[in-house]
Every structure is written in structure tokens, then in C-alpha cells.
Amino acid sequence: MNKLKAYFANLSLQRKWMFTSSAVIFFSYAIICMVVYISLHTWLLNDEESKVKRTSDDIVSFLESQGPNITIQQIQQNTGLLNSIVDRNQSVRLFNIDGIEILRINDTSQAAPLTAMREIVQMTVDKKDVFVANEPVRLGFFQGYIQVIHPLTGFESLMNYLLTAMLIAGVGALLLSGSIGFYLANYLMKPLHALRSSMKTVMDKGFNEPIQLAYTSQDEIGDLLKMYNAMMNELQISFTQQQQFVADASHELRTPIQAIEGHLSLLKRWGKDDPAILEESIDTSLTEIARMRKMIEELLELARREEKDDMSEADVIVVLEGVISEMELLHPQARITLSNNDEIGTLFITENALSQIARNILENAIRYCEKVPEIKISVSAHDQEAHLQIADNGIGIDEENLPYIFDRFYRVDEARNRQIGGTGLGLSISKMLLEKYNASIEVKSEKNVGTVFFVKIPLKY
Ligand code: ADP
Questions:
Q1: Where does the record place the HAMP domain (predicted)?
Q2: Atom of ligand 1 nearest to the CA of 453
Q3: Which band of pLDDT confidence, cut at 50, 70 and 90, is reported for residue 344?
Q4: Residue of 255, 291, 399, 405 to test ligand 1 pocket, by largest number of atoms within 8 Å of CB
Q5: Which end of the chain is less enclosed by CB atoms within 10 A, N or C?
Q6: pLDDT band at 415 (very low <50, low <70, confident <90, very high)
Q7: Which of 367, 340, 361 is nearest to 433 (CA)?
Q8: Domain end call among 304, 339, 367
Q9: Which positions ≥6 away from 295 have C-beta within 8 Å?
């Protein structure tokens, strides 16, 4: 049994399906056949029994209707009517009280023993199954027995015929259900085979080939394939993004490393004895190292992508005031004002994320400004959102560069921005953090006038 279980468990899904559907159809068919066979058998056998009863009753009432004075000789001579009562395949015998046969109508079977009286019994006479009815009769002074023998050959051949027909139909049903099961399983497995070969392609060749499984049906498999397509496309996108990210990151990190390397070799050749070169090289190397550290920290922040915490909440005014005083300490020349007209509820974002976003935007506003930085922050509540507006009087951004400023490592003026310490990651981190909390960020800018960032963050309650 365990071997059979193990064999079945190792079969392909297609064969499992075929065997199971065939077995279910076959067993249902077998049960229906058994019920039909047994009911028909009982019903037909009862019918045969009632025929015997009818014949024996008819004969007894015929003989009794002849009156008490009828003699055995008269009965023996006048068997015409008795012949018409008895079926052709039945044998009827009249015995006297000593069991000696004195009349016989039809001779289809040998006499049966005169045992059970007044009841119909099934027995084998002359190797044939028969129904036997023994009935005592009294005609005037004559006392004897009537014996009706009813052969069951007709009934048996009918039942055998039925059984053969059922068996043939059963084998037919088994073959038919097997082939239908096989065809169906094949049909249903086809998309799964396609899924498997697509997975194999991804395993062998990675995401180099586009993944598109064509299956249009709206059933469970269609749903599964649709999900697989969507999942693989997402994976493909994130895989490409990751490749791009690694390429960009190594490219970005190469620049400070090259600068440090350059300065160190300069030092090695001439700088040891020249205090001016020594001083400058050490300063530049330290600046490059600081930039590298900042970039690595930001890269880690981007790579971390923690799940959003449902318990997150932040008081926007408290957070903004904290960041503003931090900025004022670092950049005392900057003038930052905060205004809020409405009572703002709690925001659905962590304080850490909100301060990081505010810090990035404010740092940019101060960094990309050639005048005395003037930054106006206003906060208002609309429906279920808080709207933050951060406007500066900086250098502004060209219209053609504006769509890309949230991309990783994108800097409007690469050489210049590197010089003033930009990594090109600040805004992409802010956007990533905002998207995590279903918030959004937009920007409007005018060259030499200033830039305005619009941030919308959902309220917690
Ligand atoms: P970075 O670290 O270089 O500042 P960001 O992702 O924060 O990177 O910004 C991307 C680019 O967008 C910056 O390099 C800069 O050119 C431009 N930018 C961002 N904010 C401002 C601003 N307030 N005014 C002008 N340019 C800006």
C-alpha cells in the first residue's frame, strides 16, 4: 500500500489527473451498475415467482371448479384447458397422496422432491435452477399434490446478458474516461509546461529575454500566469535597476577614489617636503573621503528599503522646527520661515523620514543659491493630507532638467554640484521615503528666480 502511495505521489500531475478521474468515473459507474443489477435481479426474480404462484393457483382453482364428483380419468382425458393455463416452459405434475405421478402437463423438467408445501422454493433440478411450488389438492375423494416447476433459464440468460453488457460498457467507460482525463490534463497542463520552460529560461539566461506567457483564459491558471508575468516584469525592472544602480554607484565612487589616489601619489613624489602640497593634498583627500562616506551612507539608505511601519506618526511642526534650527546652526546666513494656517494633525510617516526629507530639500535650497538664502515653508491641511510647500530664492532648475532631478545620481551641473558637495542622491532618497508612505513630491522652478517643492503626506487620523 505504501509502495502504491509512493508510486502515485511520484507520478506526473497529468497522470495523477488521468488516473484519478478514470478511477472516480469507473467507481461511480460500477456502483450505479451494481444498484441497477441488484434491483433488476430482485424485481425480475419476484416476477418469475409470481408467475409460478399464478399458475399453481389457477390450476388448483380450475380443478376445484370441476366439482367434487370429477374423477382422475376425466381430468387425464381433458387436459386441453389445463394446457392453456400452464406456460410453455413450465412443467405441472399431479401426484396422488403416495407421491405417484398421475398426470403431467409439459415435460420441460424432471420432477422435484415433494418437500416444502404451500411455498415456492428455488432449487436445482436436472442441473437447472428452477422455482418449485407444491400445493395439496382435494377433489372429492381424491387427495394429492400439484407440483409446478418453473425453470429460471430465461431469467438467468437475461441477467447474464445484462452483466455482459454492463461489463463491456464499463470497460468502454474506463477507456473513454481515461482518454478524456488524459486529454483534459494535457490541455490544462499546457500553460504550466509553458510556465516551467519560461522559468528554466530565466534560470539559464537570466532576464535577458522578455517574459510573456500567452494564455488568455480568465481562469485560475490564467490568473496565475498573469501574476507570474507581472511578478517577472517587476523582477526584470528591479534587476535592471539594480544593475544600473551598481554601475552608477561604482562610477560615482570611482571619482573620489581617483582624486585621493592622485593626491597621494603627488604627495609621494614631491609633497613630503613641500608643506603647501602636503596641506592641500591632505585637505582634498579628507574632503573626498567625507563625500565618499556621505555617498555610502546615502547608498545604504536607498538600499535599505525598510517596510513601512503602520505605527508611524509625526508632528510636522515639531519635526520642521527641529530641522530648521539645525540648518540655522550650520548655515547662519540662511533665512528660513515657517508658517501654518491650519491646525495640522499627525502625519502618517516616521519622524526620522520626515526630517530626512526636510533636511534634503532645505540643504539643496541653501546649497543651490547664489544670494542670501531665503526659504519659506508653509504647511496646510487638505482633506486627509498635509501639504508642505518649500520655496527658495536659489538658482532654479532648467525645464529640461526638471523631470530628472529625482533620479539617482542626477545632478544638473555635474562638475559644479560635485564641487559643492552634492551626491545626486538626496532627492531620490526623499522620493523613495515619500512613496513608502503613499506621499508625493512635485517641483516647480524658474531659472534664477527659485524653486518650489510641493510635498503631500497623508494624515494619520
Ligand atoms: P545633490 O546631492 O546633488 O543635491 P539631489 O538629489 O538632492 O542631489 O538633487 C539633484 C539635483 O537637483 C542637484 O544636483 C541640483 O542640480 C538640483 N536641485 C535640487 N534642489 C535644487 C534647488 N532647490 N535649486 C536648484 N537646483 C536644485
A1: 186-240
A2: 23
A3: confident
A4: 405
A5: N
A6: low
A7: 361
A8: 304
A9: 249, 252, 253, 256, 423, 425
Q: 309, 348 in Cβ contact below 8 A?
A: no
CATH number at residue 439: 3.30.565.10
Residue pair 335/353 in contact (Cβ under 8 Å)? The answer is no
Instruction: Give me ligand 1 centre to Cα 423, in Å.
Output: 9
Instruction: Report whether pLDDT(343) > 90.
Output: no
- How many independent structural domains does the chain possess? 3
Tell me the whole-structure pTM to 2 decimals.
0.55
Residue 285 domain-assigned?
Answer: yes
Residue 450: name the closest of 376, 380, 400 by CA.
376
CA 405 – ligand 1 centroid, Å: 6
Question: In this structure, which residue's CA is closest to atom 4 in ligand 1?
Answer: 422
Give residue 329's domain range.
Answer: 316-458
Query: Which ranges in 270-315 belong to alpha helices (H)?
Result: 275-304
Q: How far is the CA of 248 from the centre of ligand 1 (A)?
A: 17
Pocket test for ligand 1, best of 248, 368, 393, 402 (most atoms within 8 A of CB): 368
Both 250 and 383 in one domain: the answer is no
Question: Ligand 1: residues within 6 Å at CB?
Answer: 360, 364-365, 368, 392, 394-397, 405, 410-412, 417, 422-428, 451
User: How many CA atoms lie less than 13 Å away from 115 in the CB half-sphere?
Assistant: 7
Q: Can you say how many angstroms the Cα of residue 176 is from the centroid of all Cα atoms in its chain? A: 29
Same domain, 287 and 343: no
pLDDT band at 418 (very low <50, low <70, confident <90, very high): low
